Structure formats: C-alpha cells, structure tokens
Fold Protein phosphatase 1 regulatory subunit 21.
Amino acid sequence: MASAELQGKYQKLAQEYSKLRAQNQVLKKGVVDEQANSAALKEQLKMKDQSLRKLQQEMDSLTFRNLQLAKRVELLQDELALSEPRGKKNKKSGESSSQLSQEQKTVFDEDLQKKIEENERLHIQFFEADEQHKHVEAELRSRLATLETEAAQHQAVVDGLTRKYMETIEKLQNDKAKLEVKSQTLEKEAKECRLRTEECQLQLKNLHEDLSGRLEESLSIINEKVPFNDTKYSQYNALNVPLHNRRHQLKMRDIAGQALAFVQDLVTALLNFHTYTEQRIQIFPVDSAIDTISPLNQKFSQYLHENASYVRPLEEGMLHLFESITEDTVTVLETTVKLKTFSEHLTSYICFLRKILPYQLKSLEEECESSLCTSALRARNLELSQDMKKMTAVFEKLQTYIALLALPSTEPDGLLRTNYSSVLTNVGAALHGFHDIMKDISKHYSQKATIEHELPTATQKLITTNDCILSSVVALTNGAGKIASFFSNNLDYFIASLSYGPKAASGFISPLSAECMLQYKKKAAAYMKSLRKPLLESVPYEEALANRRILLSSTESREGLAQQVQQSLEKISKLEQEKEHWMLEAQLAKIKLEKENQRIADKLKNTSSGQLVGLAQENAAVSNAAGQDEATAKAVSEPIQSTSLIPDVESREDLIKNHYMARIVELTSQLQLADSKSVHFYAECRALSKRLALAEKSKEALTEEMKLASQNISRLQDELTTTKRSYEDQLSMMSDHLCSMNETLSKQREEIDTLKMSSKGNSKKNKSR
C-alpha cells in the first residue's frame, strides 16, 4: 500500500512538473518577446530624442532671430518717431527726403511683414512639434508602465514557481530519506525471507509430491467408481431435484400473499370506478329519469355494466397463482404455470378497455358539446381523454411483459433466460408509469368535479356520483402506488431467485423437465416419509449434553451416593429407636401427670368452689397438652411442664432430664451437619479430580490447535516473502524514478536561475527607462 501511495505521489509530481515546464516555456517566450519589444521601443525613443533635440535647436535659433528682428523693429520705430517732427519743420526741404523715407518705409514694411509671417509659421511648427512630442512621451510612458506591471507579474510568477520547486524538492528529499530507511529495513527482511524461502521450497517440494500422489489415487478411484456424471449435460441435470429451500418458498408465498392483497384492492377500485362511471353517464349531461340519453351513452353504459365479468377473473387468477405456491414446490418461472391464466385474464380485461375507450372518448366529446360545458370544463375533459388513452396503453404494456414472463412455463424458447431481469425491470417501470397516470387522472378529475359542482344545474345525485368516482380513482392511485413500490422493493429478490434451480446448472431447460422434476420431488418426499419411523421419546441433545457435564463435574457420583444412602439408613434406624424410647417416656410422664393431678384434687377438696373450678380447668388444659404431645411425637424436643403447685424431687429430675435431652438433640444435629459437610467435601474433591482430567484433555486439544496455528503462521510467512519481493521490485523502480526526478529538478533549477537573471536585468532596464 505504501509503495502504491508513493507511486501515486510521484505520478502527481511528474504531472505537475510537466505542467510547470510547459508554463515555463510559455514564460520564456513571453520574456523574449518583451525583450524584443523593449529593444524596439528603445530605438524609437532614441530617434524621438534626436528629432526633439533638432527641433529644440531650431527653436532656439528662431527665438534668437526673432529677438533680433524685434530689436530692429524697435530701432526702426524709434527712427520713425524721430523723423516725423523733423519732417514737419522742414516740409519744403524734406519733400525729397520724405519720398526717400517713404520708399525706405515701404521696404521696411515689406521686410517686416515677411519676418512676421515667417515668425508665425515658425511658431506654428514649434507648437505642433511640442504637441507631438508630448503625445509621444505620454504613449511611451504608458507603454513603459504596462511593461513594468507585466515584468512585476512575471517576476511574481517566477517567484511562485521557485517556491513550489523548492517545496517539491524538500518533499522529495524527505521522501527519499524515508524510502532509503525503508529500503534498508526491507533489505534486512528480504535476507531473512530468503533463508525462509529456501526452507519453504523444500517443504513445497515434499507437499507437491504428496499431493500429486493423492491426486493420482483420487483420479483412479473416480475413474473406477463413478460410472456416470449426470450434471455434465444440462438435459439430464434439469431432471435432478434441487435442494429444498424452505426459506425461499416461504418468502415467495409471503410475497404472493401480499401481491394477492394488492390485486384485490385494485380489483375493487376498478369495479367501483367502472360502476360509478356507468351511473354518471345515466345522470350527466342528460338525466335518464327526465329525458332519454344518447345512443352512444346507452351503448357505453351497456358495456360498462359488463365490467365485473372482466375484472373479477383478475382476482381469481392471482388467487390460483397464490395457491400454487406452497412449501413443497419449487417456485421459478418454469414452474409457475398459473401465471399463464392470470396473463390470459389480463388480456381479456385489456380487450374490454380497448372496447370501451372510443365510447368513453366520444362521451367526453358529447359533454364538451353540451351547452352546460364551460371552457375550463372542456379543457379538463380533453385532459381526461388523453389520460384514458395513456391508461389503456400502460395496461397493454404491462400485459405484454406479464405474457413474456408466462412464456417459460409454457414455451421454453419464447423468452431467453438472459432477458428475465430486463423484463422484470420493465414490469416495475410499467407499474410506476401506471401510478403516475392514475395520479394525473385523480388530479384532473378532482378539478373537473369542483367545476361541475359550481354549475347552477348540478344536482345532488351528480355531486354524490362525482365524489364516489373520485374516491374510487383515489383508491386506484393508492393501490397502483402500493403495487409499484412493492414490486420495486422485491425486484432484487425476484432477479436473484431466478438462479434457484438444479445444482451446477443455469436453470430448468423446459416446462416438461420442470414438471418431471416436481414429480420426482414428490416421489422422493413420499419415500422419505415411508422411511421415517416414529422414534421413542428421548432426551434432547442439548439437555443430554448438559446432563453429561453435570455427571462429570457434579458431587453425586455413584460410589458417593451409595455411601450416603448407607449412612442415611443407619441414621434412620437410630432415630426410630430413639423415637420409640421417647414415646415410652412420654406415656410414663402422662401417667405421672394423671397421678399428680389426682393427688392435687384430693388435697384441694376442702378449698373453695372457685379455686376447685380453676384447678380443674388447669388440669384439663394440661391433659389436653399432654395428648397433643403424644399425637405429634415431639416429646423428645419439648420438655414436659408439671402443673403441680408443690415442687418435689421428681419434677426437678424431669427438668434436668429435659435439659440434657435438649442438649443431646443439639449435639446430634451438629454431628449430622459435620457428616454432611464431610461428604460434600469428599464429592467436591472427586469432581475436581475429574475436572483436572478434562483440563488435561483440553490441553491436548489446544496443543493440536497450536500446531495448526504454527502451520498457518509458516504459510503466512511464505506469503510475506512473496509480498516483500514485490515491494523490493517496486522500491527499485521508485529509486530509479527518484533519480530521474532529481535530474529534471536540477535542470529546472538552472532554467529558473536563468529566468531570474533575465527578469532582473529586464526590471533594471525598465526602471532605468
């Protein structure tokens, strides 16, 4: 398991490595492209700098020229200002000079106009060059910012990859160290296992020779003693009686009973549904008591009146199928002949549904065409017509699958055994579909009933009939749901029970062979009953085992019981002798008591009558007590109390005698207890000796079990050697894989270092920009 986990880890690492390598190549290409773009941008920046410097030089020269021209204009303006007053003073003499100055002024004005135009043109060029320079500079700065962000992202990716690589390298190094330790321990174990394998190979050779000899003997016995193998051919094997599985038969009978109950509920619901539908046709849309109904509804009600002749046989067929499944039969599809009759009854009911379906649809259309029908009621009627079509289709589907299941009991070639499970699953699906359709019918019919109840022309008879139909539809829905859930819950058992059949075969071949097998089974059961003789009542096995344990470990062994019987007989004889002695003593005491009473009576003749009466009563009580003592024979344990008022020597002797007799009785009881205890201890000693013998026997059995356990341990050690060899091979493969991984990791480290250097250089260049 550890090697498999390590291989999985290395495979994951290899996949991650390949992904990272591909990402690294993509990053390399991106870095190279960025370097090329940065170089091109550098060249463009140099060209722009040069053009900017030229423009600045031209600008400086133009500004200098402009200043010169401005100064010259100022000088000319000053000269003009000086020349104007002179001209006023010397108009006459200055006409000639004015003409000259006018010519010069025109020359100067033209020259000034040219300089001004040239200055404007230079200003425009300078402004355009400045704007272009600012635009280019902004573009380059934005480009530089994006390149710096991309370089930072690439650097972060590179840093993350380096961290991952370092973590993977550390993990691999730790795994490598652990694997080296494991490999050393496994090498030691492998050396020990090699020594054991050599010993086991010798044992294996001996066992192989022994088993080969036994195999030859068994083959010779089989060839000589077994004349015919009937399980070899499926035709003969199908006639063999399979093992009687009483639990399977009881389960199948229970399932059939549940199915019978569900079918009975479904049959009653169908009868109610068809009957109440017939009553509704007689009431709505035209009441037959007031007016004649349409011939279509008359025909429809006539057909519905015959529903019991088609629905009742379904219950009868299911009852016959339930009665055919008994404890003595073998229940498979090949032996359930009564399923065919149930399928035939179901086909007759489906013919009835097909016959009444067009009339039902036409009846719903007639309801829609009546003046009482609203748009909502018309929509419900259309939905019910679709539901009735679906219901008939589902019953047809269910009948086809049940007919297929009935084929193995009549036509063996009609259905292949491999298709049994698919047919059963389709039956379950059809039952679920029937349940869904009945739910739709219940919903749509309840909506229709509520709409009809709200009509002003709705009679009480129509309302009660609708309620009855709705209750029958609800019962149908519940019955369909119960049957569908029941079949789906037992579907696995049905599929598993298909394999129940003859031994070492796929199943019964034909219904004829199944029937023959059932006849053979009955004959075999009758033969076994004839062989069975009434046995005498005996002790149950468990009770006999318990009694045996009691005899082995109890205190009542045969010899001990004999001794106890003998001792008890001796004690009984002694006690009888003592009883006779004390009976005589009691009689003597009674005589003495009578004499004493007579004497007391003579002495007290002269006393008062009251005293005489009291004494007489006392004497009578004492005589009664003496009679009771004689009757119960307890004179030994109960001392005789004298009622004489005058104590004498005899009474004292009696008291002393009674005291000693009580003491003797106490001592005898103690002696009996001591004897019983001694016998009990003796019996316990005998039981302990027997338990010791049993413990020795159990010890021998445990030693044999120890031998078997040692053999199992040796076998497990052999298996361990084989597993260790496989682990060694896997470890060698893993070590090779680790070496290759280390090489690739070293190469990857070099590539990462180069990428780091290149990224650092690019970042420095970008920063310098």
In short: Residues 94-225 form the longest helix (132 residues).
